[in-house]
Write a structure and sequence with these properties.
Elements (H helix, E strand, L loop, with lengths): L6 H4 L7 H7 L2 H13 L5 H17 L4 E6 L7 E6 L1 E3 L5 E3 L3 H5 E5 L8 H4 L3 E6 L6 E4 L5 E11 L8 H21 L7 E15 H6 L1 H6 L24 H16 L4 E6 L5 E6 L2 E2 H21 L2 E4 L13 E9 L14 H18 L1 H6 L22 E2 L2 H11 L1 H14 L20 E3 L4 E3 L9 H23 L6 H16 L11 H10 L7 H6 L4 H9 L5 H55 L5 H32 L4 H27 L12 H5 L3
Parallel strand pairs: 1-8, 15-16
Antiparallel strand pairs: 1-2, 3-4, 5-6, 6-8, 7-8, 9-11, 9-12, 9-13, 9-14, 10-11, 14-17, 16-17
Helix pairs in contact: 7-16, 10-11, 12-16, 12-17, 14-15, 21-22, 21-23, 22-23
The protein binds adenosine-5'-diphosphate and magnesium ion (MG).
Magnesium ion binds next to loops.
């Protein structure tokens, strides 16, 4: 029997990974590079030149003709500008050239990317700077070129971040700094603390032919009209169901492409809504996981084309069936391999678990507004608070068992004894907690799942950067406060201090712990009583970026400056406005050029029938007349709402500031759009199939 190719035979083949590096570099160069990657030492120009040479050689052997600095501007997607390796030397000969300077730094015109006012006060020039901790890779286009991709950060001439990566790297550095300090303050040795992230990605796949016929999907990524199909997801027959052949072929190809890129695509399954699916890779370092998630999204879209499918990453492509999210699994690990969120059995590490665990709880409570903000984008507005995704109120689920344990520990002397015993000996029921026991509440936005926290509010199209910037920074802040306290006491008093801190933090922030169903109205009331904030729309959520408490936090940890935060708020508002503007325009267009003609045709057909049949006998046209009346009535309402949409849309365009415009969009345009849609959907079911202007939900969601 022929030996089949194994995944391991080609996994990471397109990545400039440690195996390739060792092949293309001298042992000295390799160990210097490793030090730069692992310990964050600055990269000198001499080493950069040697790395660039190795990269160029490898990439050229792989058939690459071009390289690109690959970055993540504030639009939320990725950007690339390709340069070829071709150059001319002093003698006029053609050579391949790629220097340390080319590798480390690139220049890009920042003026075409959103900068939120930063550029206006400085220069138009922007720079891309190599993030050497995320591996370079090559990508091939079928029948086209091969390009070396170099993951980079993107900043302005004066160093302000113009991208999603820079703050993430800064936040990881803050977490590292404060995490190391915390561990050392417990008398343990450690060199580095690293945030790990695993992102589960939901998506829809639909037939490309249907996609092409839907103006709304093409321009906005979601359906702006569409009556429910007779069947939705009520039978729960899609979740984990056997995967149909075409989708299965798609998934195999997708996995293959991802494995070549060194992405550990691990799980795949059908999701709750018809035509909805999920993919999750194995977790890794936060910035790499974020880069990989961008590649996963891009690859999902590209591979779909090969199967005449379209991959939809919008948070809510279809009304009344589930939308798509992205679960952000987060933990923090030391360079010695200790997961600080694992309730351990080793004395010493347990104090670390308790402190880390309560630090996250305290941080998420104190900075719940930032956590909420990090899951805010226009698409996610349709999910948060719906009966499918966590609401806009942040709460934490730690599991019944753990909650009981924490309550006992924090109340009275008996608890204190167990806490002491746990820290000193590791023997305690805490260590015996099963992972499963904490993974029951799928309605929780922020759940402790055994050895990590799972943030479930993030939208499917969003970058993983924002949530992790927030989590890393707020945990760094709590670590910093805790280590300051620990350092104020002697080694002998340390255990008592740990207990005091854990008890205090847990008691002070317990209000954020919630084990009930987050989707209910009761919880909204209860949360209000507890004083938890409920920012129920993204326009308001963006404001928290410029809240003094939050600016102080980011500046204190060197993650973002006040100017950067202001510019981000501005850009997010602009993006919101653009999205709603495009949606409103698309709706107006479809209403006039697609739906109206279909209604008119249907009316005409009815009228002709009524006329002709009435010639025989008037009584024979009773149903047709009723039908015409209903249709005409709805058409009038439709037209009035259309005029209203025109009016509010115009009002929005006249608003003098970004925020004012966003408020009109949110409070007037979106509401009118919803009304118009409702009427159009009521009309859709009255239109004969042959006059339907576009594929219906039934056509799109239940394709072969
Ligand atoms: P589920 O949420 O479906 O129960 P899993 O336990 O398989 O899923 O985990 C989902 C994601 O969480 C995967 O990407 C996985 O690699 C990641 N993950 C697992 N352990 C950790 C960890 N310690 N830190 C961060 N992510 C993790
Ligand atoms: Mg999960």
């Amino acid at each position: 029997m022929d030996k089949k190719t194994r995944i391991t035979d080609y996994f990471g083949q397109n990545v400039f990974n440690s195996v390739v590096m060792q092949e293309y570099m001298s042992p000295e160069t390799y160990s210097e590079v490793r030090a730069v990657i692992d310990s964050g030492i600055t990269l000198g120009i001499d080493l950069a030149n040697r790395v660039a040479e190795a990269m160029k050689e490898w990439a050229s052997d792989m058939g690459a003709t071009h390289y690109t600095h690959w970055f993540q501007p504030l639009t939320g997607s990725t950007a690339e500008k390709h340069d070829s390796f071709i150059s001319i030397d002093k003698q006029g000969n053609n050579i391949l050239e790629f220097t340390g300077k080319n590798l480390s730094k690139g220049e890009a015109d920042a003026s075409s990317f959103p900068t939120g006012g930063i550029r206006a006060t400085f220069e138009a020039r922007g720079y891309t700077v190599w993030d050497c901790s995320s591996p370079a890779f090559i990508r091939k286009t079928k029948g086209g070129g091969v390009t070396l991709y170099i993951p980079t950060a993107f900043c302005s001439y004066n160093g302000e971040a113009l991208d999603k990566k820079t703050p993430l790297l800064h936040s990881m550095e803050a977490l590292n700094r404060e995490g190391v300090k915390l561990i050392r303050s417990l008398g343990m040795q450690v060199e580095r603390v690293i945030a790990s992230v695993g992102g589960e990605q939901e998506y829809f796949l639909i037939d490309k032919k249907d996609f092409n016929k839907r103006t709304d999907l093409r321009f906005t990524g979601r359906t702006l009209f569409g009556a429910d199909a007779p069947k939705g997801q009520e039978q729960h027959d899609q979740y984990y169901a056997s995967i149909k052949t075409r989708v299965s072929q798609y998934m195999s190809k997708l996995n293959h492409e991802l494995w070549l890129l060194g992405i550990t695509a691990k799980t795949q399954h059908n999701e709750a809504a018809p035509s909805q699916h999920e993919l999750a890779p194995i977790f890794c370092t936060a910035n790499i996981a974020t880069d990989q998630n961008q590649l996963i999204m891009e690859t999902m879209k590209k591979v779909a084309e090969k199967f005449d499918l379209t991959c939809l990453l919008h948070e809510k492509p279809f009304a009344n069936v589930n939308g798509s999210g992205k679960h952000n699994n987060w933990s923090v690990t030391t360079d010695s391999g200790i997961n600080m969120l694992r309730p351990g059995t080793n004395p010493g590490e347990n104090a670390l678990f308790l402190l880390t665990f309560t630090a996250v709880i305290a941080g998420v409570d104190e900075y719940a507004d930032l956590i909420r903000m990090s899951a805010s984008n226009p698409g996610n507005e349709h999910r948060l608070g719906g009966n499918e995704a966590p609401p806009s109120i942040i709460s934490i689920y730690i599991g019944d068992d753990l909650e009981l344990v924490m309550d006992n520990l924090c109340e009275g002397n008996k608890g204190e004894e167990s806490l002491k015993q746990y820290i000193n000996t590791g023997v305690n029921y805490l260590a015996e907690l099963k992972k499963d026991s904490s993974d029951r509440n799928r309605t929780s936005p922020f759940a402790f799942t055994g050895n990590k926290f799972e943030f479930r509010m993030v939208g499917s199209s969003a970058t993983l950067s924002n949530p992790n910037v927030m989590i890393n920074t707020i945990v760094a802040e709590m670590f910093s406060r805790i280590s300051e306290e620990l350092l104020s006491v002697s080694a002998a008093e340390r255990d008592a201090k740990v207990i005091e801190i854990v008890k205090r933090l847990y008691t002070e922030h317990k209000r954020i712990i919630y084990k009930g169903n987050n989707y209910t109205k009761d919880w909204v009331r209860e949360a209000k009583k507890r004083g938890l904030n409920n920012i129920d729309n993204c326009v308001d959520a963006y404001d928290v970026l410029v809240d003094k408490k939050n600016i102080d936090l980011f500046e204190r940890h060197g993650v973002m400056t006040c100017v950067e935060l202001q510019s981000r708020r501005e850009i997010y508002l602009e993006i919101y406005n653009q999205v709603i503007n495009i949606e409103a325009k698309t709706m107006l267009l479809m209403a006039r050029s697609e739906i109206m003609p279909a209604i008119i045709k249907s009316k005409k057909e009815l009228a002709l029938t009524i006329n002709q049949v009435s010639n025989i006998d008037e009584n024979f046209t009773r149903v047709e007349r009723e039908q015409l009346q209903v249709l005409s009535g709805l058409f009038n309402i439709f037209n009035n709402e259309l005029v209203e949409l025109d009016r509010v849309y115009l009002a929005a365009s006249k608003a003098t500031t970004c925020k004012k415009r966003a408020i009109i969009y949110r409070d007037q345009v979106v509401l009118t759009m919803n009304k118009l849609r409702k009427t159009a959907d009521a009309i859709e079911v009255l239109i004969p199939k042959e006059f339907q202007p576009y594929p219906t939900y039934a056509d799109i969601l239940f394709y072969d």
